[in-house]
Amino acid sequence: MKRIFTVIGLAVSLAAASFAMASTAAKNNAEAKSLYERLGGKKAITAVVDEFVGNVAGDNRINSFFKRAAGDPKRLAAFKAKLVDQICQASGGPCKYKGLDMKAAHKGMGISDADFTALVEDLVKALDKFNVGATEKNELLGALGGMKGDIVGQ
Ligand code: HEM
After folding, report:
1. Maximum alpha-carbon separation in the chain
2. pLDDT digits (tens, 9 = 90+) for 70-128
3. Distance between Cα 54 and ligand 1 center (Å)
4. CA atoms of 61 and 36, how far apart (whole Å)
5. Where along the chain do its domains lie?
6. Best mutation site among 48, 74, 119 for ligand 1, i.e. most ligand atoms within 8 A of its Cβ?
7. Residue 14 has pLDDT above 50, yes or no
8. Residues near ligand 1 with C-beta < 6 Å?
């Protein structure tokens, strides 16, 4: 009889433990935040893009690509707004990117691997300036890195 109670006791505590684990997992899921939220939302993304475009403008390796945008404040503002929407959307935010797809946007520019790397370095500098965490930085760079094939070498 004592043995039966021990077995029942064990089964009850196992059930309780797995219930506790399941509810912790559910809680963690509910608390999981999108990359957009972890980056700090649209305001933080806009600040990073401003800094990033400033870095590109000062980067002699690639700034010649951006002569037209740099020389026209309206064009520059439109370019920045598109970058913000693109990053916002790609990170799970509520924005809708309405610009050209990456293939069409960079067609005929002759962007090399080295140009792409230089631009990513300028972005990393901007992310570092705003102390964006390593996890968020890697997630964002991973998403943008996936676009490389449409941007480079055409
Ligand atoms: C992941 C990397 C990149 C992303 C996400 C990106 C994103 C964009 C976006 C959203 C646009 C605006 C498209 C439109 O007008 O509808 C654009 C335009 C442009 N991109 Fe990129 N781009 C990337 C890499 C590069 C690189 C490596 C270069 C050259 C070094 C470059 C040069 C340009 C230029 C010159 C324009 C046109 C700017 C203007 O005059 O309005 N991009 N890009």
Report:
1. 89
2. 999 999 999 999 999 999 999 999 999 999 999 999 999 999 999 999 999 999 999 99
3. 14
4. 30
5. 1-32, 34-151
6. 119
7. no
8. 62, 65-66, 68-69, 75, 79, 82-83, 86, 99-100, 105-106, 111, 115-116, 119, 144, 147, 151
